[in-house]
Fold these 2 entries.
Entry 1:
Amino acid sequence: MDDKIHEIWNVRFINRIIDSMADGVFTMDASGRISSWNPSMERISGYTAKEALGRTCQLLQCSHCFGKACPANIKKCKIMETAYPEAKECHLRHKKGFDVSVIKNASVVRDDDDNIIGIVETVTDLTELNQARKKAEEAALRLGEIHRMDNIIGRSRAMQQVFAAISAAAASEATILVQGESGTGKELVAGAIHFNSERREGPLVTVNCSALAENLLESELFGHVKGSFTGANRDRMGRFEEASGGTIFLDEIGELSPYIQVKLLRVLQEREIERVGDSRKRKIDIRIITATHKDLYARVREGLFREDLYYRLKVFPIQLPPLWERREDIPFLADHFIAGMNKKTGKAVAGLSKAALRIFMDYPWPGNVRELENAIEHAFVLCNRKLIGTADLPLEIRQPTYPVHCNATADGSFSPKTRRKKLSKETLYELLDECDWNKAEVGRRVGLSRTAIWKYMKKFDIPLQKEG
Ligand SMILES: Nc1ncnc2c1ncn2[C@@H]1O[C@H](COP(=O)(O)OP(=O)(O)OP(=O)(O)O)[C@@H](O)[C@H]1O
């Protein structure tokens, strides 16, 4: 290819590159007149190339420029005095009159004799970035809102003790171990401690220790250096480092392998970590909150969890009671979730019907508060009256056979086992009223046959037809 053709190719390539750039690019000649204007400049400013060419960059009415003000005469622009590209964050005025947040980058182009022959400016649109920043700020605010103490519902004595423990934990830097069955609110409590502590401005990083295999969890927590294992293509910061200045919440801590238990023990003792494949020690400033639905001490006794780690973790233990042990909280929790769902769906459900509330009070809630929250969500889909009725509730809640709690099982977990629950006379009366005394319908709602309902009615001396 001779030089001429080569030059043409270069120009074409350069033009194509400039035209396809996401950033705006424009050039000005030595007199400050716009001489080129790429498609992204059209998008960012609203001015077409035809409208911009030949004008000065005052067209953009930037909020602040490279000098204090944008001089009409380009020769007086401060950019002429700078030897290197200059970048500034500012607003430009879109053709339609609104401000666009941008980063402007400008540099002077000189010929071989050092005479200025023009200026190149690039303009990066910050709108999307700002929107993402705003969303992240809003999400952080929402997270803080969810974890406000008054969003944790509980009037029972047991929950009052939990609130006192959260306040004390938030005022300290102690390592916290939150224990309780699944769905009792362990993550909620961890968040409340963080957002009420001195570290609230810092990050809250959550890691579920049961979700990853040992080697992946190690790299997730501690990070790694490039080449430390197949697929480690670059250095990566771990979650401990990410939580610096804030709190790390390690959920399902009972699932940790012996190897990671040793590594965690070292973090607790030395407050420093080493990335996988690196021998450099890095100091970390973090607060550690852990949680488990297992009976951790049972796991220690079985030799599955290190005793020294157990004692380091439970410096400040918080035990969350299962819902069936604090039934008095059920109506308040139901009201709380109904209010939340009303807001979310625009419905105006006033509460639970008497019969539905009775079922709520009788049911043992093996899935605890999460199950109650799901039951309300389920009911909202079906409910088209003022009160949530029994028919709106999930089948397993209105069925008389359901799981009931017992204490820790052989594998050290608090898990439910099954027992049959009998229908009470009062519940049966309310159900009959709700179903216009249609026994088949009552049976369907509680998962029993019509004959079984008849038998119950006979046993309770309930007449077969509504009296009066
Ligand atoms: N006391 C409470 N007041 C209001 N909402 C609660 C309460 N306890 C739990 N919740 C809600 O119940 C759901 C489950 O809570 P969370 O995830 O904190 O439970 P968990 O104990 O961490 O469960 P798991 O062990 O399964 O991870 C969440 O939506 C949470 O907001």
Entry 2:
Amino acid sequence: MLKIKDLHTHIEQFHILQGVNLEVPDNSVTVVLGRNGAGKTTTIRSVMGFYPNMSGEILFQGKSIAKLPPYTVAKQGIGYVPEDQDIFAGLTVEENMRVAMRREDDTTLERQEWLLDLFPDLREAWKRKGGHLSGGQKQMLSIARALVNETPLLLVDEPSKGLAPIMVEKVMEAMNVIRETTTILLVEQNFIMASQLGDYFYMIDEGRTVFQGEMQLLKDDEVLRKKYLGIA
Ligand SMILES: Nc1ncnc2c1ncn2[C@@H]1O[C@H](COP(=O)(O)OP(=O)(O)OP(=O)(O)O)[C@@H](O)[C@H]1O
């Protein structure tokens, strides 16, 4: 679904990514792990086309998307849920959904219904303004917005960040349903969530891919987890 080869990204004068290699197989959940500042968010944002000052190859369904601007990347069918949730505080949940739609046809409205079944909290908060939602509801809305259009690939940046445990649970349950129809690339520091959802992992350290494999490998390898994640 997605292939990243030797990605280098500069932000201003800084050489942030210095060789990220990553593959996301169809119908999988692939998790990007690494310490704070390792380059996980920059990797996802590079795929979305936020940094024109990059080199390397980014292939989505076999087609190069490197250096395309974010709206073009999104239109190819890549949904993006940023770390800080891109919802409009002054618009209601309903309006936030409508703004995200590329078309208001039956298929899109059916997808919206499916998303509201997946996140009943959003149905309940339908007429509430984005700014008045809880952190968990904002995260759900951000995910729903990214998925309301035809989206073969979803990039999600730390969906559990700052959420109460009950909300983490709800988001994780929803992701488990979403994975049945959507390939996912997930950045996640919460190792419980990462290890329960992930089929494969990539470890990024100092802007480079340093390790990769099936998630089971990492679950079984305490030394590796300690070395790169600082957790036992
Ligand atoms: N706009 C920017 N200007 C300068 N440096 C930046 C900028 N954005 C990110 N960086 C630096 O790039 C490095 C990678 O940041 P990135 O956000 O990708 O890390 P991360 O692995 O996602 O970590 P975190 O879990 O803390 O979000 C960090 O050292 C960060 O300080």
